[in-house]
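Homework help board

Subject: predicted structure for assignment chain

Our instructor gave us this sequence and asked us to write out the predicted structure in token form, then describe one feature. I got the tokens but I'm not sure how to describe them. Can anyone check?
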Amino acid sequence: MKQTFLKWRTQAALRRNKSLRASTPYKKAHSIGIIFSVEDRQKHDDIKELVKHLEQDGKFVEVIEFLPKKKDNYEFLFNFFTIDDLNFWGKIDNSKVTGFALTTFDYLFYVDNDHNPLILYLLAESRAHCRVGKYKEQHEPYFELMIENNGTTKGLIENMYKYTRQLK
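My token output:
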């Protein structure tokens, strides 16, 4: 039942969210958000490396992760949320997640090869100017920039970084 309400909330959020969407030139961008689902240690390390590169470029970076059941939260380095934060009515009850969605990032990177319904809801609610994620035709309403990637998560991260840096 929660999942049904979540789908309705997501569709409603897509319709009502009238945030300004635009791709800021990378050199002028100040803030970047990163959201992802925890999978393994390698993905965690790849995200840390991306954060390091973005901070070296002078960007403020905020990261939040979805922690599935029976997965490890490596280093407890990033804010996280779980399925337990989803209430009966399909709303995520976690102030850090709500604050993240309401932040007007210049770019919001969604670093998952398989799309997660909870994160899609956050993308629909997001106030980010340019949402960047993996290309899937049915998920076009969630992104301003989609990256074609049939490889690894590291390849997706590298392409996201490469293509956003080229935006002028």
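Reply (TA_rk): Your tokens look well-formed. For the description, you could write something like this. The chain has five helices and six strands. That's the kind of observation they're looking for.
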